Amino acid sequence: MKVVHTVEELRDQLRGQLRIAFVPTMGNLHDGHLALMAMAHQHGDPVVASIFVNRLQFGPNEDFDKYPRTLADDIAKLQAQNKVYVLFAPNEQELYPEPQNYRVQPPQDLGDILEGEFRPGFFVGVTTVVLKLFSCVQPRVAVFGKKDYQQLMIVRNMCRQFALPTEIVPHETVRDADGLALSSRNRYLSEAERREAPRLYRLLQQVRERLHRGEADVARIEHDAQRELTAAGWKVDYLSVRRQRDLKAPTHDEVVARLPLVVLAAAKLGTTRLIDNLEI
Ligand code: PAF
Questions:
Q1: Which of 151, 155, 156, 182 to mutate to test the pocket of ligand 1 (most atoms within 8 A of CB)?
Q2: Given this model, what pLDDT does residue 101 score?
Q3: What is the pTM of this model?
Q4: Residues 124 and 15 sit within 8 Å (Cβ to Cβ)
Q5: Residue 99: what pLDDT?
Q6: Pocket of ligand 1 from Cβ distances under 6 Å
Q7: Alpha carbon 223 to chain centroid, angstroms
Q8: What is the number of other CB atoms lying within 10 angstroms of the CB of residue 217?
Q9: How far is the CA of 5 from the centre of ligand 1 (A)?
Q10: What is the pLDDT of residues 120-162, one digit of tens each?
């Protein structure tokens, strides 16, 4: 695996390649990321990964400074897996040359709800960096995890809007044996919090079961799940059932008609904010 830090070196490595499969990451790689690399390997050749902790998608009170930066370990993991041909690990100056103010603004109805409501500016940061990374790597396919469900939708939407020649391939959320979705932020959890954390996924499963059983009072189902999380010490940002196609709230008739839905949640356990979702 070649590790490159500049766009010029990246271009040299990828010259003439037409079937590039790309996995953008912020590093601190875990098995979830490695599963994305494996999927990329099935969809194209060569596989390119990137590691870049993107300041633009962190709010002023978020964890940009303490976000784990583990480049040497990440390189070792990718080398052991042997699926990635080039790792692109640029610095800030390389991706955000000064002076610059260009931003990609997702549409409000998709970018300002759910995560966007609680993390203003987050999706502008994501789409801006993903467009830059796509323009550096020029992938034919890019793999994104479903754990960041809204991000996946917004990136796919951006590709359509800008007619980018990149197909977005989703990967199922990778979970620990107890159901907790793998995330670099899980490492912030204390032992007690780690034992508590799988409750989030259990509750999403309960929401899905109730809907599968034919209950149609979505507000009540959401309320019950939120109440249980709060009673267990979580601070809930949202736990909400939405339509899969556009993340809008479903009407009663749509729930009864079993339109494809997804339940999405974000909640804080201590100081750690976890997100998860489940398709219904
Ligand atoms: O999902 C992530 O790790 C990041 O949001 C991404 C897509 C790498 C952009 O910084």
A1: 151
A2: 85
A3: 0.97
A4: no
A5: 83
A6: 24-26, 54, 57, 126, 129-130, 148, 151
A7: 25
A8: 12
A9: 18
A10: 999 999 999 999 999 999 999 999 999 999 999 999 999 999 9
